[in-house]
Amino acid sequence: MNQSTHSRVAYSTASKLRQFPDLVKLTAAKTWNGILPATMVPNGAVPFVEVPAGR
Fold first, then answer.
1. Helix (H) or strand (E) holding 14
2. pTM score, two decimals?
3. What are the backbone angles phi and psi of residue 3, rounded to the nearest 5°?
4. Could you read off the pLDDT of 1-55 as tens digits, one per residue?
5. 32 within 8 A of 49, measured Cβ to Cβ
6. Distances (CA, A) of 21 to 2, 5, 6, 7
7. Dihedral over alpha carbons 23, 50, 28, 42 (to 10 degrees)
8. 48 φ, ψ (degrees, to nearest 5)
9. Residue 7 class from Cβ within 10 Å (0-12 exposed, 13-18 middle, 19+ buried)?
10. Which long-range contacts does 1-8 make (Cβ < 8 Å, 24+ apart)?
11. CA nearest neighbour of 27 among 36, 43, 38, 16
12. Are 29 and 35 in contact (CB under 8 A)?
């Protein structure tokens, strides 16, 4: 992929993410294997799991 094509793809992707911010969540949900992390490292990243209030 040449630089011009790469730039167009990056711009298109950024544009779609601005239009559909939940696209990141959808993509993550599609690729998740369903297994929660077994180890939590102090000061490490926390997996995103949203639990709506009242449920």
1. helix 3-19
2. 0.41
3. -60, -40
4. 677 888 888 888 888 888 888 888 888 888 888 887 777 778 877 666 677 777 5
5. no
6. 28, 23, 21, 20
7. 130
8. -85, 120
9. exposed
10. none
11. 16
12. no
> Given this model, what pLDDT does residue 20 score?
87
Residue written as tokens 């297994």?
A: 35
Q: How far apart are CA 29 and CA 6, in angstroms?
A: 26
pLDDT at 55: 57
**Residue 24, both tokens:** 């990141």
What tokens appear for 6 in the block? 């790469």
- Token digits of residue 8: 């167009």
